[in-house]
Amino acid sequence: MNGGKGLMQAAAAVWWRDFVAWRKFWRSSILLNFGEPLTNLLALGIGLGAYVAVMQGVTFLQFIAPGLLAVTAMNAVTFDAGFETYDKLNSSGVYAAMLTSPLTVPEIVVGEYLWEATRAILYGSVFFIVILAFGLVHSLWSLLLPVPLVLFGVLFTAPALFVAAVARTHEQLFYYFSLVITPMFMFSGVFFPVGHLPWLVRDIIYILPLYHGVELTRALVLGQVNSGLLWQLVWLVGYAAVLAYLPVRALARRLTT
Fold first, then answer.
1. Rg over CA atoms, the chain
2. pLDDT at res. 104
3. Which residues contact 94 (CB under 8 A, 6 or more apart)?
4. Does 5 have pLDDT greater than 70?
5. Looking at the chain, which runs of residues are DSSP E strands?
6. What are 54's strand-pairing partners?
7. Using CA atoms, how far apart are residues 141 and 150, in angstroms rounded to an integer?
8. What distance in Å separates the CA atoms of residue 191 and residue 60, rounded to the nearest whole number?
9. Quick check: helix, strand or coil at residue 37?
10. Given 3-state DSSP classes, what are the helix, strand and coil percentages for the chain, each rounded to the nearest 5?
């Protein structure tokens, strides 16, 4: 087993391979990952915002914009990690080829985390520029957004890698997207405060990783920073730490059987 320095050097090689592959279709990749949240921002923020004047002391557009930034990062890494991992396992044989080199499965996984963290920062930053142009950023605290974005890159990539590793057909990926990602998008406080929901629903939402990501990004963008944000950060770090090892054994089993 390589030491920490060797692990990161090997992971960097995986990152570089993913970057080189991404350069071939970066324009369409940005458009696909950026189009939906931008549409939501315009259609809901401006359209529905005409009927919802104020939400938690800010305009409806100001309220949903930071949440959609978090969703942009989540979707970018989830769909890329899910579909690309499935392809690398079942079609292109990229992972099998990597294992013929000195790379190990943990090094491959860490490399994917580095790459998806890069994507989370990239797409989150592009969306940040848009909401900045709309005049929706109100604090220099927003310069700390790369911190939660990096955490999104790990905690949303890990389960996507796991699902792709255990999926036997391409269609099975959509169970995760439809039954986990979409409900989390709808009920994590992106479009409405969750504090007045029934207690059972509210308590379920409070354990969702996206909820804590939305709360943290919203506070940084709006400048509503307080000591309670440390709790949101602890949740995100805890999720990332717990989930990080999840896909390693699943990928190892697929690649060695």
1. 19
2. 93
3. 17, 87, 88
4. no
5. 54-55, 58-59
6. 59
7. 16
8. 8
9. helix
10. 80, 0, 20
Structure-model confidence comparison of residues 162 and 134, the more confident one: 162
How many whole angstroms separate alpha carbon 169 and alpha carbon 84? 13
Residue 133, pLDDT score: 87
Helix, strand, or coil here: 59? strand
Tell me if 82 sits within 8 A of 177, measured CB to CB. yes
Cα(135)–Cα(132) distance, rounded to whole angstroms? 5
In this predicted model, what pLDDT tens digit does every residue of 75-119 receive, in sequence order? 999 999 999 999 999 888 899 999 998 899 999 999 999 999 999
Nearest to 255 by CA among 97, 128, 80, 78: 97
Task: Write out pLDDT tens, residues 37-51.
Answer: 778 787 877 777 777
Which tokens go with 152?
């999104």
Look up residue 38 and give its amino acid: L
Number of domains within the chain: 1
In angstroms, rounded to a whole number, what is the distance separating the alpha carbons of residues 206 and 69?
A: 19
CA dihedral 194, 196, 197, 199 (to 10 degrees): 110
Nearest Cα neighbor of 61 from 38, 32, 93, 34 is 38
Which residue range is the domain that position 148 belongs to?
Answer: 4-256
Residues forming a β-bridge with 150: none
pLDDT of residue 246: 92
pLDDT per residue as tens digits for the range 227-249: 888 999 999 999 999 999 999 99
